[in-house]
C-alpha cells in the first residue's frame, strides 16, 4: 500500500506582506511560505503497512502568523491516494482571537491557584495579588490568583509584564486559548479496499505534534494520536498525521426474560441501555458502510439510550433486539451499560435482576456479504423475584446480582468492547 499523492496548500497574506506590496508593487501577488500564514500537507510513502496498526499518513505544517481577515475559519481538505483508495478528508481550522492582556490557562504543572473573582486588575487582596483574565469563563472577566510555585498549582499565567509576575509561562499570544485548532470533520474514508475477502476502510487516527517536522513511521510508544492539531501564534508548528486500515464491526443488544419468570405473572417492563465512553473517547466521524446490517451510525456517547427494549414474552421467542451500531476496532473505548427497567411504583413491588450477560463475538450472518465483519451482540436474561422486606423498596432499580469479587458499589451491567484480535472477552 503506497501513497501516490497528497495535497493541501492554503495561503493567507500576512500583514507585513500587505505593507510590502504597497511599497513594492513588483512583489504584489508573490507569497513566500516562510513569511505568510500558510497551511500545507506533505504526504508520506509508508510502503506495506499492517492491518489495524497506525502508520504515518503525512505531515501538516502551519505557519501561524497574524493576518488581516474577517473570517475566523479556514475550510479545506486533505487529499490522499493510498492502497487503491482516493479520498478527500475535509477539515475546519479555527483562526482564534489572540489574547493580548494578562491571561490564565489550566495546567497540570502550573504555578498558580485560583483565589477569587475580581472587579478588575487592581482589586486583588494581599494574599492573592496576581490578577489575570480567565477566557474560559468569558471575555473581560478578571480573577485573583495565589502563587504556589511551579508544578504545585493548576494554572499558568501569560503576560507582557513578566517583572510583575512569578514563573510566567509566556506572552498572552502563546496561551492555549490563542492557538489555532484544526479538526478533521470526517475521519473515516467513504471508499473501501478488499483484502483477503474482507473490506477495510482508511481511518484517520489523529495527530501527534512534532517540534521540527520529523515524524516517526508509527506513533511513539505510550503516545496516542489526538483528533485535533493545535498551532501557537507567530510560530511554525508541525503535526504528524496517522491513519489505519481497519475493519468495520457492528453491535446490537438483545434482551431476553427467562421462561421461569412467567410464573410470577405481571407485565414485562422496558429496559434501558446506553453507551459510555472511557476516558477521552471520541467516536469516528462519517457514515457506516452500506450493508444489510443497516447500522444507524457509529457508537458514541449515549448510543442506544433513546431505544428501550421491551421483550414481547418470556423465553427466546420473546427476545427483542436493538438496531445495529457500527464501531471500529482500536477506536472503541466505550462500555454498554444497562441503566434500569421502567417499572411502576405501584405494588406489588418487583425486583428485576440480571442473571446473565454474554458477549457473542465473531457471529457471521449471510446478509453481511463480503464484509464478513465481526459482530458483537449483548444478550441478557432476567428473572423476577418479589421483595420480602420493606428495606428493599429503594433497591428496585438495582439490576446486578453481584458476582464474587465484584465492586459492591456497581449499579449497571456493562461490557467493554475491544479489538477482536486481542482475544476473547470475559462474560458477566
Please tell me about this protein's structure.
The chain is mostly beta strands and about 425 residues long. The chain has 1 helix and 24 strands. The strands form 6 sheets. It has a 6-stranded antiparallel β-sheet, with no helix packed on it. Strands 1-5-6-12-15 form a 5-stranded antiparallel β-sheet, with no helix packed on it. Strands 17, 19, 20, 22 and 23 form a 5-stranded mixed β-sheet that branches. Strand 13 and strand 14 form a beta hairpin. The N terminus and C terminus are likely disordered.
How would a crystallographer describe the biggest sheet?
Answer: 6 strands, antiparallel
Strand order of the largest sheet: 2-3-4-16-14-13
Q: Low-confidence runs (pLDDT<50, min 5 residues)? A: 1-31, 361-428
Q: How much helical structure, as a percent, in the residues?
A: under 10%
Number of strands: 24
Q: Helix-strand pattern, N to C?
A: EEHEEEEEEEEEEEEEEEEEEEEEE
What general form does the structure show?
flat
| Radius of gyration, taken over Cα atoms and rounded to an integer in Å | 28 Å
Strand content: 35-45%
Structural class: mainly beta
Distance between the termini: 41 Å
Q: What is the average per-residue confidence, as pLDDT, rounded to a whole number?
A: 76
Tally of separate helices: 1
Amino acid at each position: 500500500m503506497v501513497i501516490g499523492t497528497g495535497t493541501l496548500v492554503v495561503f493567507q497574506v500576512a500583514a507585513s506582506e500587505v505593507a510590502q506590496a504597497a511599497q513594492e508593487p513588483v512583489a504584489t501577488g508573490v507569497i513566500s511560505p516562510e513569511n505568510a500564514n500558510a497551511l500545507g500537507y506533505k504526504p508520506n510513502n509508508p510502503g506495506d503497512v499492517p492491518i489495524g496498526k497506525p502508520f504515518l499518513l503525512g505531515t501538516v505544517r502551519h505557519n501561524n502568523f497574524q493576518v488581516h481577515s474577517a473570517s475566523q475559519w479556514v475550510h479545506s481538505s486533505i487529499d490522499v491516494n493510498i492502497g487503491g483508495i482516493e479520498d478527500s478528508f475535509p477539515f475546519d481550522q479555527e483562526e482564534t482571537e489572540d489574547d493580548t492582556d494578562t491571561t490564565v490557562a489550566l495546567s497540570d504543572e502550573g504555578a498558580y491557584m485560583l483565589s477569587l473573582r475580581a472587579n478588575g486588575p487592581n482589586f486583588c487582596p494581599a494574599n492573592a495579588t496576581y490578577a489575570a483574565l480567565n477566557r474560559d469563563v468569558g471575555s473581560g472577566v478578571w480573577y485573583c490568583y495565589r502563587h504556589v510555585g511551579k508544578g504545585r498549582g493548576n494554572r499558568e499565567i501569560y503576560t507582557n509584564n513578566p517583572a510583575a509576575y512569578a514563573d510566567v509561562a509566556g506572552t498572552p499570544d502563546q496561551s492555549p486559548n490563542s492557538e489555532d485548532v484544526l479538526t478533521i470533520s470526517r475521519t473515516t474514508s467513504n471508499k473501501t479496499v478488499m483484502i483477503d475477502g474482507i473490506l477495510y476502510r482508511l481511518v484517520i487516527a489523529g495527530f501527534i505534534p512534532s517540534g521540527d517536522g520529523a515524524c516517526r513511521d508509527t506513533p511513539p510508544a505510550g503516545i496516542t494520536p489526538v483528533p485535533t492539531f493545535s498551532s501557537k501564534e507567530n510560530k511554525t508548528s508541525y503535526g504528524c498525521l496517522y491513519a489505519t486500515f481497519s475493519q468495520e464491526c457492528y453491535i446490537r443488544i438483545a434482551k431476553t426474560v427467562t421462561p421461569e419468570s412467567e410464573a410470577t405473572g405481571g407485565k414485562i417492563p422496558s429496559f434501558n441501555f446506553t453507551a459510555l465512553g472511557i476516558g477521552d473517547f471520541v467516536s469516528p466521524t462519517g457514515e457506516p458502510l452500506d450493508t444489510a446490517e443497516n447500522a444507524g451510525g457509529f457508537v458514541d456517547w449515549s448510543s442506544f439510550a433513546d431505544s428501550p427494549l421491551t421483550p414481547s414474552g418470556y423465553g427466546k421467542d420473546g427476545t427483542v433486539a436493538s438496531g445495529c451500531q457500527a464501531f471500529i476496532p482500536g477506536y472503541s473505548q466505550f462500555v454498554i451499560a444497562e441503566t434500569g427497567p421502567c417499572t411502576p411504583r405501584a405494588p406489588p413491588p418487583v425486583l428485576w435482576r440480571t442473571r446473565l450477560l454474554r458477549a457473542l463475538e465473531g457471529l457471521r450472518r449471510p446478509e453481511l456479504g463480503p464484509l464478513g465483519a465481526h459482530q458483537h451482540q449483548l444478550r441478557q436474561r432476567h428473572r423476577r423475584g418479589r421483595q420480602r422486606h420493606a428495606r428493599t423498596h429503594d433497591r428496585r432499580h438495582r439490576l446486578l446480582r453481584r458476582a464474587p469479587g465484584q465492586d459492591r458499589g456497581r449499579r449497571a451491567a456493562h461490557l467493554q468492547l475491544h479489538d477482536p484480535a486481542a482475544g476473547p472477552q470475559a462474560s458477566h
